[in-house]
Specification:
By secondary structure, the chain is an all-alpha fold. Helices cover 58% and strands 0% of the residues. One of its GO terms (molecular function) is acyltransferase activity, transferring groups other than amino-acyl groups.
């Protein structure tokens, strides 16, 4: 079966017999944070802070829509080869695009106290809140009151937050080494052939997706300018067409679990030598499709640009509906959803729901959980106080 390794609850597949003034660090690194450019050196007093970059807000919004669409297509893939092909294509690049942007906006991260505070309040706290919330939701919606809490075993969407926390903390290391991308690919390859790596912190997925974060760390603004050239946009059309043709051919022959990067090759029933091959092949395919995706992202301000600041909200909140639809058997009860009209309807609903969940009213309602200030939890940093006094006096 092509879809025998689906992420319902993200249980791991068992082994066959025999996971500013200097401005503060910008928060575009996670799906719901600001898309301002990385901090520049201290600017003269009175100078306006750098404006948000519409391109990155647009990219994050469009990518989060694809995330929601992919989750809505997953129950349809067993009955639709077209849905399976689209699913495989989207899973090739939607999370790599997010992770690459995360790395790009983490380039200036260091262990400065204000940046560590933001890492805690913007990543660690939402992880804890939603890990608990998802567990309670599963207990209720899936009628599983004994389902255990586990802060070390991320459930469903929360893996991205704990992975981002670890990636960000490792940023100084990747900025220090001479060949960061090859080294990260070596780490990902070793993870792919290590079935006993364990479930703690979803380490398989954390390590296998690591090269995309490191690639983002290594990118510069001119690289995005190159990607957005007209020639790249034109070339991306036949590339996506070829990707669909290949995915349509591969759908009945290849498990889409390869694209989750959640299991070792042994857990996928493949020989160890496929680890390096698939790691490099999938990384290459993802980079190409991410580039094609970025090439078509609008540079100017669009009606949805403002929603790019709320993608973390949409990402985490839509998980309740995505999982609830499985727990409550909607796709089994309403068989018309597996027909072409039903598939289109599901796609439109997913895009609409995620759009609403990214809006400013939703951000305001859930900011206490996603971006808490938590001033009470931290000591005041003397250097930060000095900067505040300098700004006030100026």
């Amino acid at each position: 079966m092509t879809n025998s390794l689906r992420p319902h609850g993200y249980q791991r597949t068992p082994l066959p017999e025999e996971t500013a003034p200097t401005p503060p660090t910008p928060r575009a690194e996670e799906p719901g944070q600001q898309a301002t450019a990385p901090p520049a050196p201290t600017s003269p007093a009175g100078q306006k802070p750098k404006q948000r970059d519409a391109f990155f807000d647009n990219a994050k919004y469009l990518a989060i829509v694809l995330v929601a669409m992919g989750h809505s297509w997953e129950p349809l893939t067993d009955s639709s080869r077209t849905a399976e092909a689209l699913y495989m294509i989207v899973y090739t690049f939607h999370m790599p695009a997010f992770i690459l942007i995360s790395g790009y906006f983490s380039r200036s991260f260091d262990m400065r106290p204000d940046r560590l505070k933001r890492l805690i309040t913007g990543v660690a706290v939402p992880y804890l809140v939603f890990e608990v919330a998802y567990t309670l939701f599963k207990r209720w919606a899936d009628d599983d009151p004994t389902y255990d809490f586990s802060l070390l075993d991320p459930w469903y969407l929360t893996w991205f937050l704990i992975a981002l926390f670890v990636w960000r903390m490792s940023t100084p290391l990747w900025k220090l080494v001479r060949w960061p991308i090859p080294l990260s690919l070596a780490v990902a390859t070793l993870a792919a052939v290590s079935p006993d790596i364990g479930d703690d912190l979803d380490m398989q997925r954390l390590l296998q997706f690591l090269p995309f974060f490191v690639l983002g760390l290594c990118m510069k603004p001119e690289h995005f300018q190159m990607i957005r050239r007209r020639s790249v946009r034109i070339a991306s059309v036949p590339i996506f067409a070829c990707a669909f043709v290949f995915a349509y051919w591969a759908a009945p022959r290849m498990s889409s679990a390869w694209f989750y990067h959640r299991d070792s090759v042994q857990e996928l029933g493949a020989p160890p030598w496929t680890g390096p091959v698939m790691t490099l092949a999938l990384f290459g395919c993802s980079v190409v499709l991410v580039s094609c995706f970025f090439a078509w992202v609008p540079r100017r301000h669009m009606w949805f640009t403002v929603l790019g600041a709320g993608t973390l909200y949409g990402y985490l909140l839509h998980g309740f509906l995505a999982k609830g639809s499985r727990f409550w058997g909607w796709f089994d009860e309403y068989q018309w959803l597996h027909k072409p009209l039903g598939e289109i309807t599901v796609t439109i609903i997913a895009a609409s729901v995620i759009t609403v969940l990214c809006t400013p009213p939703v951000q305001r309602a859930f900011r206490f959980a996603m971006e808490p200030k938590m001033a009470w939890a931290f000591r005041k940093d003397p250097a930060e106080q000095a900067r505040s006094r300098t700004t006030t006096s100026a």
